[in-house]
Amino acid sequence: QEENMNSLSRILLSSILSVVALPAMADVQNRTIEYKDGDTVLRGYLYWDDRYEDKRPGVLVVHEWWGLNAYAKMRARMLAEAGYIAFAPDMYGGDKVTEHADEAKGWMQQITANVDNWQRRAKAGLDQLKGLEQVDPDRLAAIGYCFGGSTVMQIAYAGMDVKGVASFHGGLPPATEEQQKNIKASILVAHGDADGFVPAERVDAFTKSLNAAEADWEMNVYGGARHGFTVPDAERKGIDNLKYDPKADRRSWQRLISFLDELFRG
Fold it and tell me: Global pTM?
């Protein structure tokens, strides 16, 4: 899998570097962190640039429904290169990763079926990040892709201690009236206009719920972009609605970097 991640790294960096200036001579380190949610053993991956000696902002990077694969780890590495401490948590346990949509859907549904359990599993990962010595616990954010995008919205809906969340081609679950009362985080959403997994009615309900909460939110909609528009090999899954869009990828990543800068330094 390390070889796949290196290949993915080259693709992503060639796409992103044209619009986002990363610090020179970054020396990114990584290590595995094992933790638990109840009796379930989870294994996440931490990335950081060891040139920095001061406490850094921490960013949680939540994986797609495929599991904690090379893509999520690569995004965490990119955030480390940008100066953040990034942690990719395991939402499934057991190192579950798949290429099969039916299997991925089943794993995801096991987590999302109970919102309290879903939020608790997400908090277990956030707590690992928050508790690290090199992380400033007052400067935390969470980003996620697909299932991970829906997960970071649950982090916001639970009122967890993050300054902001960013969802990339997430499912856009609307906040309930009770959840609306908890929202403190700023919210950034990157959504594909041609994403067939998220009907217009849900987008409308989602935005209306955020307005009802008087939340600080922003949605960037990319014309013609389908689900998975930030994932270079999305088409390889053989699903018509999955397609990489390099322009939407570059633009959404650039917006994320400015969003994080605003959260932590603005």
Answer: 0.91
